[in-house]
Design goal:
It is a single chain. By secondary structure, this protein is mainly alpha-helical. 95% of the residues lie in helices and 0% in strands. The chain is built from two helices and no strands. It is rod-shaped and about 135 Å long. The N and C termini lie far apart (137 Å).
Length: 96
């Protein structure tokens, strides 16, 4: 076996015994990490859908707040008118 053949054989042996298994191990680790990211992304998508469903009615709550603001101002006006009517009835009751 000549020196060139010996170096060629050593290079092939090194490639087959070290670099190929190392590549397989690293590719497997990469595949596991990608799979883990995929599973986490699926869970995040499920959570995001739940959040979207829970916050979908916020515009309806804003409309409710606007309506109750109007109701509150109307109730305040009614209270003022009733207080005036009560005071008038109390004055008439004192005269009689």
């Amino acid at each position: 076996m000549t020196t060139v053949e010996w170096f060629w054989a050593a290079g092939l042996a090194l490639t087959l015994l070290v670099f190929v298994p190392l590549s397989v191990i690293l590719l497997h680790r990469l595949w596991r990490a990608a799979r883990s990211i995929q599973l986490y992304a699926r869970d995040a998508l499920t959570a995001a859908a739940g959040i979207a469903g829970n916050t979908a009615l916020i515009p309806a709550l804003d409309a409710t707040i606007a309506t109750t603001t109007g109701i509150l101002s109307t109730a305040t006006d009614i209270e003022q008118k009733l207080n005036g009517a009560t005071a008038e009835l109390a004055r008439r009751a004192e005269r009689a």
